[in-house]
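pipeline stage [seq->struct] | target=Ubiquitin carboxyl-terminal hydrolase 38 | organism=Apteryx mantelli | residues=1039
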Amino acid sequence: MDKILEGLVSSSHPLQLKRVIVRRVVESAETPLSQAQCRAMFALSTRLVLQGPDPFQRQVGRQVLEAYGRYHRAEFEAFFNRGLVLGLLQRGYGQLSGRDPAILDYIQAGLRLIMSCPSVLELFELLQVEALRLVCERPAPPLCARLCQLLGDFPQCLPRGRKLSLAFCQQLVRSIAHFQSQGSREAELRLYVSQVTQVSGLLRSVWKAEPDTLLPSLQELFAVISAADTSFEPSVALASLVQHIPLQMITVLIRSLTTDPNVKDASMTQALCRMIDWLSWPLAQHVETWVIALLKGLAAVQKFTILIDVTLLKIELVFNRLWFPLVRPGALAVLSHMLLSFQHSPEAFHLIVPHVVSLVHSFKRDGLPSSTAFLMQLTELIHCMMYHYSGFPELYEPILEAIKELPKPNEEKIKLILSQSAWTSQSSSLPSCLSRLSGKSETGKTGLINLGNTCYMNSVIQALFMATDFRRHVLSLNLNGCNSLMRKLQHLFAFLAHTQREAYAPRIFFEASRPPWFTPRSQQDCSEYLRFLLDRLHEEERTLRALSSAKTAESIMNEESQTQEAVHKAQLSAEAPCTGSEERTLIEKMFGGKLKTSICCLNCKSTSQKEEAFTDLSLAFCPPASLENLGPKCMEHSEVKDDYVVQSNTLVSNAAEETTLNNLEVNGGCDTIMNEGTIKNFSTEPNSENTTNSELNKVQDNRDISQRLVGKNTPSVTDLLNYFLAPEILSGDNKYYCEKCASLQNAEKTMQIIEEPEYLILTLLRFSYDPKCHIRRKILDNVSLPLVLELPVKRATSPLAVVSGGWSVDVEISDIGENLAKKLKPSGADEVTCPQLVPYMLSSVVVHSGVSSESGHYYSYARNVTGSGPSGLCHQSKALSLVSPQNNLLAEESPCTVVENELDTEMPKEWFLFNDSRVTFTSFQSVQKITSRFPKDTAYVLFYKKQNNTCGFSTNSANRLWVNGDPPLQKDLMDAITKDNKLYLQEQELSARTQALQAASASCSFRPNGFDDNDPPGSCGPAGGGGGGGFSTVGRLVF
């Protein structure tokens, strides 16, 4: 029968005839045959299966083998023995190599026929050994896939025992690493992907059946991809294994990998780069999840060198993967994480900028829903990066044009995305006993390192930095080539805005701005420092401006004469009043106001007046008795609401009232501004022009209401301001020499604010000189701080005239002021005598903790307030200003209270606590309650921001690209910040490695650095407010 069949399949008869005869041969398998005949048929069918020259003969061989093997099982068991199988696997068959997949096809067919025979167990044992040998020989994808199919159908052939099973998994991983596609056509690539999927599927089955093999297999996988052998590049087919690793193992595996001291940086870099290459593997799942997890893990242990190198090496490759729909989701996820976390330099983002426009246009042309969705995500990412790295319009304009029709995320969302993505914001995977060297706190703000009792400077600098419009003006100045103090302040502001450090050391600025009479490393008065700083900046700008004009006008003069002329001009300009915005310095524009002092002789009624500029108002504490004497000149309304006080006040005084303030005179030291116990006397005499019994009674009733609301023992900032502006009778030893009377006469001295500053700085005079002990004692009285303050401003002309005469374009005053003055004036009073109430929002509070100006600690509360307020108060303040104070007295809730309640509920994290290096979120309630909780911690310097109709800082169209609305930095500043950010990341990495090496032997306790409202914020000295926040008593003595 075998001879007939052999002759038939090789004959030239028609194929149809051959199939009919073959069918009869197969049917005759049921008839009894001798052992020799069976063996001949098995040999022929084996030869046809393995060596058949055409598909027909191979098909005939399979049909005959299956039929005769089924009906003559014992004979086939004897034929299909160990020797045959071993020979096929090791030597092949004829010209057929043992590594041909056809050999495994034949073996699998034979195993099916003898599954019920005892000899199959012997074959299973043989195949367990041979399978391990085959994978160790690095079979090609077709053979490996066929082997895995056989082992999947017959799991009994898998190597048994932990050692052999583990070796099989590890060798199979290495075999996959050697896979390469045999062609580039789609059909060939699809076949290749299916073969790889077959192999990875077997590994998944083994890992599931024997979980102990998973971790060693992954270790082998990492060893393969981290190898530094340049002659061998592992196949991206390894990506097919990632989807079979349980996601629950991410945390354990990443922590083990990133903290293993045996893993060198070069190996980790190589492994991460190759994992990123896996993003090009189609159908692989969770590759991006593991890549991002590893990136975060490395950031958590501060291995920033690896992250920088990998990002710069692979960012363009990841971006290019967005062109391929199959791998686009994973590539976009990795791209987003890499860009958003690389926040210390624009280098990575700028590598992909040239390719963005073409990709955007491609997505638009697709018009597919999936492409549109990805385009939206890409647009959001691009907006975040352009917002963070502003100042490159030549690079970004084409991109903005391409995405102009797509939605743009709002600023708050961009800030949130950036704050959550930075490397320094990743949660640490180190053991909890290690103190984490983090970057910026969750607030996104940067602290200032205390250089040795320099908290007085740190608190002031943070308050100035949070003065948004002032900060933006400083950052926008072009000061290249200038070594001025303003340049150093710009440098400091730039680092506070852009550094990755948790805290910055302002050593250069401290040395440049420290007053000469300040002893280094000793506590000083922050108010005195603030006035000195503002005065220095003011005078410096005038000198530089005069020097610039002198060089232009007198280009022939030598350098010495130019300088002398410049100084002379600066002195003249400092003495002359400013009449135009172009002559005003930045300090004048931001903090400058004007006071008018009027002294009226009570004998002849002649009046002398004097106008002086101020940058801050020093408010003395008024004795309780003096509050009652304010009645004839002051109307006040206060309301207590939710633990803070909202106040509006109206001061009624003469048209000629004003005073003198010498706050720009800083050479005399802090004692120059001290009240020194002097108490003002207030006139209630009937001959006072604007005082009548009826007015007195009326205002006295209003004052009684105010005292019931505020409380007799808790003065407010408004009380102190009223006391400051109230008229004073000069009598007795303090009589006024009247030139008209030519003798000393009783006189009335009044002060009026005639020009309001953009930022109103109020200093509470808490330190009075004690002549007995020769020290300056501190007044610890609590003062309620109104969130909204209305400053009475009396202008001799209309508000518009004042604007055109003395204010810059950035400080615009509403034309509504004249109407406001009319509404607020008392009945029967002349229009010119009624002040306009200018609304201000509380921006910053500098707090002194301690009982003496020579000791203690300073820290500050602050928030970002622009001309519109923290939550768009610009519109609300207009409505507020139009409400009559008399109506407020009868209202249950004043408009100010409504505004404050809205602000406090809508923006729970708008307030920040700056305590040297530490910056935390806080609330306005904490600001108000600080003294009631910690009696030695008292508000000292207050910053209020005027609310303008034109809200905020005037900017150009590039404002949408600014970080926090700030202008782009000069190139040299950005380069310096980028360089320092890289240095900082290297420092973090070195510290983390040192800690990791010491972790096993060192024992330490972790103390949180967060601020708890139940503990005072801290102290620079033993007389401070008690300290807290994780510092020991010894640590508080000097820091």
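stage status: PASS
auto-comment: The longest helix spans residues 526-553. The mean pLDDT is 76.
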